[in-house]
Amino acid sequence: MSETPQALGAPVVRREGRDKVTGTARYAAEHTAPGRLYGWIVPATVASGRVTAIRTADALAVAGVHTVLTHDNAPRLEEPDDPILAVLQDDRVPHRGWPVALVLAETLESARAGAGAVHVEYATTGHDVVLSGDHPGLYTPEEANGGHPGLRERGDAMRAFEAAPVCIDAVYTLRALHNHPMEPHASTARWADGHLTVHDSSQGSTAVRNSLALALGLDRDHITVISEHVGGGFGSKGTPRPQAVLAAMAARHTGHPVQLALPRRYMAAIVGHRAPTLQRVRLGADRDGVLSSVSHEIVTQTSRIKEFVEQAAVPARIMYASPHSRTEHRVAALDVPSPSWMRAPGEASGMYALESAMDELACALGIDPVELRLRNEPPAEPDSGRPFSSRNLAACLTEGARRFGWSGRNPQPASSEDGAWLLGTGVASATYPVLVSKSAASARAVPDGSFRIGVNATDIGTGARTVLAQIAASVLGTPPENVQVDIGSSDLPTASVAGGSSGTASWGSAVHKAATALMHRIAEHAGPLPPEGISVTADTGEETAQESPYSRHAFGAHFAEVAVDSLTGEVRVRRLLGVYAAGRILNSRTARSQFIGGMVMGLGMALTEGSTMDPAFGDFTESDLASYHVPSCADVPDIQAHWIDEDDPHLNPMGSKGIGEIGIVGTAAAIGNAVRHATGARLRELPLTPDKLLPYLP
């Protein structure tokens, strides 16, 4: 049966959209059961030390309080696969905000009141929570996140840098950033006949099930984890989080269903964040702008609990041609909450610094910033020498410049005004790797002519159900509305997490394979379908086990126009444009939404978002949305996303690349470069708040 022409690429409306806007979509904290108890965490109020006493009598006296779990009476866990899940197992306090008790009560109000009545005593030790470029504990890890080597060298970058006619040597600083999805982390757990069911706000219920099985000492078949609707994650729900373990422990201990939703102010300490980074970039070039040396050195932090190294130097290994390169990560273990994944980890941080340095080089040379990037296009991946499966960055830059009206730009900084506003424009490149993981899917044809797909994908707001239906329909030769898609339960065929811009490629490949196998089965079947239909299951273990000989990446170009108030230092973004090369776009409506969402998040990274570590108390001072400022609709007056047609046969059956993260990657640098063009001032620390700009304004 031939492909349905409109199945892929068409702007099909998200099939769960009506459920969400009418309130019928149920999230993790909206599943009720008779006898349910509510949980409320008691967080540690010291940055380092041990619990010496927990007094729970006053908490238990609060009306409605059922139980208080502490390290003295909580169920014992097996060693979990992630140390942050080893909660209420001993008296240690590795950082401020670490859970030291859990109050369970008949109402949420009673649980909160009971938590406030728990009295905890500590033996404190000196804490170290401040990252610096000369911290004595810095070391070079063997690997940064994603299995990337901590240090990579080609040629002699330092010697080439010193010999270069034109050099840029700059340090860029990013404070900690927090994911803050609309739906806080929550879990509802219940036991019945030895089987544990958990509704969890997660980017991958298979991973949560596996972690719970290991920690609780259970067979995986005795656990079902459901993540049917998830209100955003941005990486913070990409791995299992403590609330799922606590809810399961408490439900087992009390014999009651337990619901635990984290208050937003607790999230900064419990569910991960983008680690702060200090980044030194050194570029050496000839007077025509051709790079001879690229050096990108990262200083970042991890917790005492586990090593997590933001891989921010990795993009410099693939972006621009240079015979000499040195990229290194160094990390210090501090008494801070564990960093974790946040949208475009590594790329978002590292490309801000690299693309800012490229703009500085363009200014020093008097070369147009778009032209400078075009002059340094590599014929193959610089770090490995592998050919690119496709690399259309130059097309993105060229098309973006055309759409933005870049050719009319006056390169002279601080040369354009609109009343009290100083106007400027900037550009930056973007990249994100093509990632894919093993997944499985089932496909069933039923006698009424419809089809049913099952795959444990997770829709975190991306429209996964819709796109997977389109992929299946394209193979089955039927309209997408004739395909039902079941996702979000660990009882379905195993699938990878929704993260790393890999979800659609991973799940879609399995769906495509299962649908193809189903078509063969139907072709071989004689007569009408049996009442139960015909079903097949397929996985992509063989395909994903093979290492690609190609360097596979999505690319993009970001353009920004800003206005800076010369009296107050306020920065307003007037226009944002992104042009992307991301393989075959499978749904133009959901794709545009993803690109724009990433760009808005990049705007927040550039202008409003940032978290400070209090050196005395050892916690993040911006712990709610009143102090941690995310962009609002009023901050984004004109934002556009476009893409070029890209045919890449070396990816997956759909020919698609990930799109969820590349939108954030270059946005902050484009805005920062535009601010420099508007004011003439080069600021190297985000966010670009008015207090930082005021000293440089006339």
Question: Overview of this structure, please?
Answer:
The chain is of the alpha+beta class and 698 residues long. The protein has 17 helices and 27 strands. Residues 1-5 have low confidence and may be disordered. A hairpin with a 2-residue loop joins strand 18 (417-418) and strand 19 (421-433).
Strand content: 15-25%
Average pLDDT score: 96
* Amino- and carboxy-terminal Cα gap: 68 Å
Main pleated sheet: 7 strands, mixed
Flag low-confidence runs.
1-5
Count of individual beta strands: 27
Query: What proportion of the residues is helical, as a percent range?
Result: 25-40%
Secondary structure elements and their pairing?
Layout: H1 17-22, E1 37-43, E2 49-55, H2 57-60, E3 65-70, E4 92-93, E5 99-105, H3 108-116, E6 119-124, E7 143-144, E8 148-149, E9 151-154, H4 157-163, E10 166-174, E11 186-192, E12 195-200, H5 205-216, E13 223-226, H6 242-254, E14 258-261, H7 264-270, E15 277-285, E16 291-303, E17 324-334, H8 347-365, H9 369-375, H10 393-404, E18 417-418, E19 421-433, E20 440-445, E21 451-454, H11 464-476, E22 483-486, H12 503-524, E23 534-539, H13 541-545, E24 553-565, E25 571-581, H14 588-607, E26 639-643, H15 662-665, H16 667-679, E27 685-686, H17 690-693
Parallel strand pairs: 1-14, 10-27, 12-13, 16-17, 21-22, 25-26
Antiparallel strand pairs: 1-5, 2-4, 2-6, 3-5, 7-8, 9-17, 10-15, 11-12, 11-14, 15-16, 18-19, 19-24, 20-21, 20-23, 24-25
Helix pairs in contact: 5-6, 8-16, 11-12, 14-16
